[in-house]
């Protein structure tokens, strides 16, 4: 197998050599012409121009640029050829190791082949082996996943992954992905430290990794979340919840968190996941210092259909800023509470146009009693109120 693979590499190199020969001939012809032209220009400069400091500087710059060009062009050509060769080699190794891993899974490898596989020392080969193991492990079969994880540990590929955590941030991300996929928990503490880093991408990957590595407490990272929990991070976490079969926690456990962004994320999760048992804890946040949190609280209570919260919301109405006042009125309409029509009617003559509009909309949502009341109010109301009610009751809207 190894001899056959060497022959394949040699054939590929010969093919590249055939292509390179033509490229090199063209390159050296161009280089020869360029050198002759440059030499003639330099000679002209030395013979015709008066020699002074400026001319000397110009000539020196020409020589420096020429020397740099002579070194730069071959290095670019060599790097292109090397990258092309490296890519081809990666593809061949990937195919080779994919077949070997599949044979390992069906118990078709001899003892010698298995021993050779476990003794691979090349960092490049081990990197490809790790990628192959992760790609084959689709997590559809627990038996396959178990065998792949066992081979990963037997080959000590986990040590390579751990080593990546001590390098630059893009290596750290690769290491986190590998360790979390293979459920290697030895570095959980170090991964949790990455949650404090300013690099947002690294923080997101750390959160994703910890959710996989801590299946019984997958959201434990929220306890130590010091940086603002950005919308992008929240979307990634929610997407992982949606795709993976992860045990969903009681998100009200983090509603007392000092980080407001974490509290707002938990409120969103309570609302989306309809965790109605969290309603009493959510109501405690109605007096929160942050208006953004209060807005989330009101929206959450409405979506949880908590009628108990309406009384508290009405008491807070006059103390709140306009956005939260509108949310309170809107919540009464969404709950379709006929018993709260009087509250809406009391505020329908408010000086603020948006409040008047929301009161009319909420009355219409109550149903027939609300619509009848709007029609009655339209007869005796001012011109602005008549236009609002006409707009709300328009069947085309």
From TrEMBL:
This is HEAT repeat domain-containing protein. The keyword Transmembrane applies. InterPro entries: ARM-like, ARM-type_fold. It comes from Labilibaculum manganireducens. Coiled coil: none annotated. The keyword Membrane applies. The chain crosses the membrane at residues 7-28, 57-79. Keywords: Membrane, Transmembrane, Transmembrane helix.
């Amino acid at each position: 197998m190894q001899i056959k693979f060497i022959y394949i590499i040699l054939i590929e190199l010969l093919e590249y050599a055939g292509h390179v020969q033509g490229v090199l001939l063209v390159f050296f012809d161009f280089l020869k012409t360029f050198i002759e032209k440059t030499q003639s220009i330099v000679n002209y400069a030395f013979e015709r121009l008066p020699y002074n400091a400026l001319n000397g500087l110009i000539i020196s710059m020409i020589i420096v640029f020429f020397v740099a060009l002579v070194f730069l062009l071959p290095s670019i050509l060599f790097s292109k050829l090397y990258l092309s060769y490296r890519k081809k080699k990666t593809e061949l190794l990937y195919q080779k190791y994919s077949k070997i891993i599949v044979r390992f899974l069906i118990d078709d490898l001899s003892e010698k082949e298995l021993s050779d596989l476990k003794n691979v020392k090349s960092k490049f080969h081990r990197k490809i082996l790790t990628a192959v193991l992760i790609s084959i492990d689709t997590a559809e079969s627990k038996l396959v996943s178990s065998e792949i994880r066992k081979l990963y540990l037997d080959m000590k590929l986990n040590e390579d992954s751990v080593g990546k955590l001590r390098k630059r941030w893009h290596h750290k991300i690769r290491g986190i992905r590998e360790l979390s996929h293979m459920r290697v928990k030895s570095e959980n503490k170090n991964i949790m430290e990455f949650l404090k880093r300013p690099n947002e991408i690294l923080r997101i990957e750390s959160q994703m990794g910890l959710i996989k590595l801590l299946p019984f407490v997958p959201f434990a990272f929220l306890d130590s979340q010091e940086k603002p929990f950005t919308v992008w991070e929240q979307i990634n976490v929610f997407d992982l919840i949606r795709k993976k079969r992860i045990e969903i926690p009681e998100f009200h456990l983090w509603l007392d968190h000092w980080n407001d962004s974490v509290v707002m994320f938990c409120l969103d999760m309570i609302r989306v996941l309809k965790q109605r048992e969290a309603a009493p804890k959510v109501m405690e946040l109605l007096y929160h210092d942050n208006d953004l949190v209060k807005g989330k609280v009101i929206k959450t209570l409405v979506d949880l259909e908590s009628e108990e919260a309406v009384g508290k919301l009405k008491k807070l109405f006059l103390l709140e800023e306009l956005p939260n006042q509108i949310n309170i009125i809107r919540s009464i309409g969404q709950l379709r509470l006929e018993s709260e029509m009087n509250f809406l009617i009391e505020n329908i003559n408010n000086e603020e146009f948006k409040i008047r509009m929301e009161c009319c909309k909420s009355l219409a949502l109550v149903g027939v009693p609300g619509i009848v009341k709007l029609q009655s109010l339209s007869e005796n109301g001012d011109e602005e109120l008549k236009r609002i009610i006409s707009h709300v009751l328009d069947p085309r809207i």
